[in-house]
């Protein structure tokens, strides 16, 4: 089932624009009241993810990720907006999530230098991902909506790709240890996204949940499923994978420790011998190595300006 509004891109113009101070000081932004702005602004809801598009260090692109905290209409003057204090009544308050997590206040404002270390998604990269950005005539105080119903103009799948790409190039590397169950699940999900797959976690099957599924198309069935088995009932984990194969004809991947691998392979050769060729057993350290090499390759692509 699609999402009516999955997220948005808010055009903040430039980190040197006078209005940018209202974002840095209070997380506040405003739009002029016209038919198009009002239609899109009225679709914004608290909790919605907002990608922040502006020019910084002479580069236009997505430089940050925020969460919509409040949507309100106000005709009261805003002292930051000196040239027209009451001219932007369609207002939104934002809490920054990346590159830092902060709800700025006048006593604890952001510094625009916080964006200096960001690897942005440039305007041309956004177009390559399916979002043709703001035309010159509309390159001010604009909102783009992503979802699967009007008034969205781009699909939720495109928003997910943009958000994933920003996160992949800006997320801090995970510590080498400990390798918890959730860390491994996140790595599998990120590897899938880096390979251009549609990724879903906690996929329900037969009243149970598979850790991660990769799909070739958003509405398709999983072609590969992953279960992380560090401790607990190894046989039960293999049964879940077998059920996924039976239901979806998926490749069944068990990610486990070197210590458990031998036991897993005995079960697969015994109780699951009829579908043995569809099972894969991967040791956690091998998966971590794959993840790190994928990230290095992705960073090199970004450095060379390739997507």
Helix content: 25-40%
Seen as an oligomer or otherwise, the chain set is single chain
**What radius of gyration results from the CA coordinates?**
23 Å
Give me the number of helical elements. Answer: 8
Largest sheet geometry: 7 strands, mixed
Mean pLDDT: 89
Gross CATH architecture of the largest domain: Roll
Q: What is the total tally of β strands? A: 12
Strand proportion, as a percent range, falls in: 25-35%
Q: How far is the N terminus from the C terminus? A: 29 Å
In the CATH hierarchy, what is the class of the largest domain?
Answer: Alpha Beta
What is the string of helix and strand elements? EHEHEEEEHEHHEEEHEHEH
> Given the helix and strand composition, which structural class is it?
alpha+beta
Principal-axis shape equals elongated
């Amino acid at each position: 089932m699609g999402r009516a509004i999955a997220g948005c891109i808010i055009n903040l113009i430039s980190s040197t624009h006078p209005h940018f101070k209202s974002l840095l000081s209070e997380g506040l932004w405003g739009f002029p009241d016209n038919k198009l702005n009002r239609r899109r602004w009225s679709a914004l809801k608290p909790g919605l993810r907002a990608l922040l598009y502006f020019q910084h260090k002479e580069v236009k692109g997505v430089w940050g990720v925020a969460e919509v905290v409040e949507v309100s209409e106000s005709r009261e003057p805003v002292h930051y907006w000196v040239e027209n204090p009451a001219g932007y009544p369609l207002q939104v308050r934002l809490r920054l999530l990346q590159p830092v997590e902060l709800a700025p206040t006048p006593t604890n404002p952001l510094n625009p230098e916080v964006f200096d270390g960001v690897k942005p998604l440039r305007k041309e990269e956004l177009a390559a991902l399916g979002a043709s950005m703001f035309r010159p005539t509309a390159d001010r105080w604009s909102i783009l909506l992503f979802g699967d119903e009007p008034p969205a103009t781009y699909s939720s799948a495109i928003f997910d790709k943009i958000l994933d790409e920003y996160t992949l190039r800006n997320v801090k590397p995970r510590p080498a240890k400990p390798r918890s169950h959730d860390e491994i699940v996140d790595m599998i999900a990120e590897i899938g996204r880096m390979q251009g797959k549609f990724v879903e976690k906690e996929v329900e099957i037969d009243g149970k949940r598979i850790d991660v599924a990769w799909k070739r198309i958003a509405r398709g069935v999983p072609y590969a499923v992953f279960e992380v088995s560090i401790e607990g009932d190894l046989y039960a984990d293999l049964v879940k994978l077998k059920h996924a194969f039976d239901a979806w004809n998926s490749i069944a991947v068990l990610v486990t420790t070197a210590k458990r691998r031998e036991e897993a392979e005995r079960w697969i050769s015994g109780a699951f011998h009829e579908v043995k060729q569809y099972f894969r057993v991967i040791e956690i350290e091998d998966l971590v190595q794959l993840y790190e090499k994928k990230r290095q390759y992705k960073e090199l692509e970004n450095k060379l300006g390739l997507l």
